[in-house]
Amino acid sequence: MTVIELTLIILIGSFFAGLLGSLTGLGGGFIIVPLLAIALPIDIHYAIGASLVSVIATSSGSAAAYVKEGITNMRLGMFLEIATTMGALSGAIVAVFISTHFIAVLFGVILFFSALMSLKKKPEITNTQPSMLAKKLRLNSSYPTVKGEVHYNITNVIGGFFMMLFAGVISGLLGIGSGALKVVAMDGIMRIPFKVSTTTSNFMIGVTAAASAVVYLQRGYIDPGLSMPVVIGVLLGAFTGSKILVRTKSTGWLRNIFVIVVSILAIQMIYNGLTGKI
């Protein structure tokens, strides 16, 4: 395989990673890491480094559109980023001391857990009783729909904050931006509408990934030649995904895509980790 062929494969794969990452709030890293570590003979630490760069690109490419449309809850995102950044730094520091087999299995388990949690999702409830902390921090908000402005309340702020701390650790370890866990925390624990949770996740993952990327860069795990096609592909995919999500009327099909893709990748990562192929 020539360098040009390899670059094209990474570019195309990154485009679809950015597209799906933007639509689901996962950040694209959940496809980048398996693509580089399983489909291509690349060390998982370098795959994670490139993935972190792609996550920053995804957030930059799609978050701006969501903020402009008024869907993203920026105040909530900035509050939860305190937890994810602390966790991301911790995870990135210990990542190089952990076996690559363990990282692969953990990656698969986290993704599979996210898929199961998404299957258990109940119909969206926007009129839940807000917590006192949410009121004090003014986290409750609204977002526009084709039927008009929809107001929603946020519950269990403390539970969501600690889940974000854990999500940050996973981001530093696996390089996936922890978008899957962020969506689960906001969607399931804090009872935020799915479209708001995915867009707010996209807004947050860039900061979380940047905190982890600094550690990987210092240790030489971010290769510019590998990261370049990843960033270009993910940016194009994220921009396309943001245009689709802003105009969609239903998020049910996004959940189905989320579950199918994440489940397949989870099985692959667990299998390759257990058999020592990663």
Overall description:
By secondary structure, the chain is mainly alpha-helical. It has one domain. It is about 75% helix and about 5% strand. It is built from eleven helices and two strands, in the order ααααααββααααα. The chain has helices at about 5-25, 30-40, 45-70, 75-95, 100-120, 130-135, 155-175, 180-190, 195-220, 225-245, 250-275, and strands at about 140-145, 150. The chain has a two-stranded antiparallel ribbon with strand order 1-2. The chain starts with a helix and ends with a helix. About 55% of the residues are buried. The model has no long low-confidence stretch (mean pLDDT about 80).
List the helices and strands and how they pair.
Elements: H1 3-24, H2 29-39, H3 44-69, H4 74-95, H5 100-119, H6 132-136, E1 141-145, E2 148-152, H7 157-174, H8 179-189, H9 194-218, H10 224-247, H11 252-274
Antiparallel strand pairs: 1-2
